[in-house]
Amino acid sequence: MSNIGILGAGRVGTGLAGKLSAAGHHVTLGGRSPEDAAARTLGLAPGIAVADQRTTARTSDIVINATPGDSSLDRLTDLRTELAGKILIDVSNATRDSDDGLPGGLCFPGSSLAEKLQYALPDSRVVKTLNTMLFTVMTAPEALATPPTAYLSGDHAHAKETVAGLLGDLGWRPERIEDLGDITTARATEAMILIVPHVLRRHGFKPFAVSLAR
User: Fold this and answer.
1) Is 8 exposed, middle or buried (0-12, 13-18, 19+ CB in 10 A)?
2) Beta carbons of 4 and 23 less than 8 angstroms apart
3) What pLDDT digit, counting tens, does each position of 194-213 carry?
4) What is the pLDDT of residues 115-168, one digit of tens each?
5) Among candidates 154, 2, 157, which has minimal Cα distance to 89?
6) Contact, 13 vs 7, CB < 8 A?
7) Which residues, including other chains, have CB under 8 Å from residue 167's CB and lie 6 or more apart?
8) Which of 47, 69, 131, 136 could form a disulfide with 92 if both were Cys (CB 3.0 to 4.6 A apart)?
9) Is 167 exposed, middle or buried (0-12, 13-18, 19+ CB in 10 A)?
């Protein structure tokens, strides 16, 4: 089992923490402060540790970025030392909000948050995944009538294999995990976020994923 740190104690981070802890991993949830993280873990598995984000990054072997995408680059660049040598799983989308609070434009058009993170953190192995769905689907892909797809982007084959194994612990079947290639392919999946606000405005916050049909 892995020692996993999750940066971000919102709905995405706490959802991933609960499922990964239930699968037997040692999970630390990192909030802006330990008190913030502890408040978010109420009702989750009792074995989840809480800490500030710097401590979480330093003490974990695998780190998941579940912080708001528009501030992730600055936040994680500040943790460069703590993230060195780690697998960094990026599940965030870097967008600017529209007037109604839903995603509007991309923060990094022509690039991607994952690419920016890999460039800023050359000693980390960044893998992009789980950013093409409503957050509830990340930990319950079986809830959708049509099997969803989880995409992988990253420069390091072993890191992607490790992440694929963690996706299995979240309920993702191997045939529904699509390795797109190197980290530059993350700009394609991050651009998929632009369809999300239109879907949400029409149907509300119902579980969905942008998937590959065969």
Assistant:
1) buried
2) no
3) 998 888 889 888 899 999 98
4) 999 999 999 999 999 999 999 999 999 999 999 999 999 999 999 999 999 999
5) 154
6) yes
7) 129, 130, 150, 177
8) 69
9) buried
Contact 210, 195 (CB under 8 A): yes
Give counts: helices (H), strands (E), the chain.
Answer: 10, 10
d(CA 167, CA 127): 12
Beta pairing partners, 28:
5, 49
pTM comes to 0.94
Place of tokens 């579940």: 66
| Structure token digits, residue 119 | 């460039």
Residue 159, SS3?
Answer: helix
Tell me which CATH homologous superfamily contains domain 3-203: NAD(P)-binding Rossmann-like Domain (3.40.50.720)
Q: What is the pLDDT of residues 71-117, one digit of tens each?
A: 999 999 999 999 999 999 999 999 998 888 888 899 999 999 999 99
- H helices present in the chain, as ranges: 11-22, 34-40, 53-59, 69-77, 80-83, 113-120, 135-138, 157-169, 186-191, 196-203
- Signed CA dihedral, 167, 132, 207, 66: sign only: positive
